[in-house]
Design brief:
By secondary structure, the chain is α/β, with parallel strands linked by helices. It has 2 domains: about 210 residues, P-loop containing nucleotide triphosphate hydrolases (Rossmann fold, 3-Layer(aba) Sandwich); about 80 residues, no CATH class. It contains 10 helices and 13 strands. The strands form 3 sheets. It has a 6-stranded mixed β-sheet, with helices on both faces. Helix 4 packs antiparallel against helix 5 and helix 5 runs parallel beside helix 6. GO terms for molecular function: ATP binding.
Length: about 300
């Protein structure tokens, strides 16, 4: 299957600090991808590398099979909605649509006009007078009317209220169904991603911790709760993602393709939020084992 984004050993450094390092991912076409991680994890850096706004320090990246932003034709295939859904405060809604038509060779004027009308955005209103939700919808309209093969959105709903977020994401999902393009959406609001994404990438400390289709990830990760146990006593095919211990009980999140038959464990399935939080646990396995030994 065609990859919309492929990175191999990708890294970006600012001075001595790595904003992204050793990033290797291969995202198939046709997915709505959730890119999640704490602030400073490297999400924006990865998306700017994918749109050609930054150049890698290490490794390489291709988008839709070509270097990001290498040619006008390549730029036309990728839409981008940056953080804070940027629009020009002094320009009217109609001005934004006219600019979009001039700058984008694949511009769908009918879609843009219809969407603006459906949203109730008056063409003569200046963007600076719109609400946060309306500005976000205008920015999304500009991205959609470009008719991209891949739409990249960098935390577009972080500053919106719950109703505005829901309406924005609903409009995005309706557009992906109608026009069949791929989406990469970064956010630290896992509940939003859980509703719309079918592929997940978790970034922590500038590195990819896990990536894959959501259904597969949830099927291969489990929470084990039972009598206190050292992680090293678990079977070799159970990779420990996170561990928590009390005096008598251990709770592990493990990744495994094999069935879990140990009757001492209570096995429960994870939500996407559970999965993300487990991978955001920064304590290394050695530290977890040391903590367990100290508590004995």
């Amino acid at each position: 299957m065609t990859s919309v984004l492929r990175a191999q050993g990708l890294g970006k450094r600012y001075g001595k600090r790595w904003a992204l390092r050793e990033c290797t991912i291969d995202i198939p076409a046709g997915h709505v991808v959730g890119l999640v991680g704490p602030n400073g994890a490297g999400k924006t850096t990865l998306l700017k590398l994918a749109t050609g706004q930054l150049q890698p320090t290490a490794g390489g990246i291709t988008v839709l099979g070509a270097p990001p932003g290498g040619t006008p034709a390549q730029l036309a295939r990728v839409g981008f909605v940056a953080q804070d859904t940027p629009v020009y405060a002094g320009l009217t809604v109609a001005d934004h649509l006219r600019a979009g038509a001039r700058l984008n060779p694949r511009w769908d004027a009918a879609m843009a006009s219809e969407r603006v009308a459906e949203l109730g955005l008056a063409p003569a209103h200046r963007a600076g007078k719109l609400s946060g939700g309306e500005r976000a919808q205008l920015a999304l309209t500009l991205g959609l009317a470009k008719r991209p093969e891949l739409l990249i959105l960098d935390e577009p709903v972080a500053s919106l209220d719950p109703l505005a977020r829901r309406e924005f994401l609903q409009g995005l999902m309706e557009a992906t169904v109608a026009h069949e393009f791929s989406v990469v959406l970064s956010s630290h609001l896992v509940s939003d991603l859980e509703r719309i994404c079918d592929y997940l990438i978790v970034l922590v400390d500038s590195r990819v911790r896990v990536a894959g289709e959501v259904d597969w990830l949830l099927a291969t990760h489990h929470r084990l709760t039972g009598p206190r146990r050292d992680p090293e006593r678990l079977p070799a095919d159970q990779h420990v993602v996170s561990a928590r211990h009390t005096d008598r009980q251990s709770t592990f999140v493990v990744r495994t393709d094999a069935p879990i038959h140990d009757p001492s464990w209570v096995v429960t399935q994870l939500s996407m939020e559970d999965l993300v939080l487990a991978y955001m646990d920064k304590r290394p396995a050695a530290e977890r084992r040391t903590a367990l030994e100290v508590q004995r």
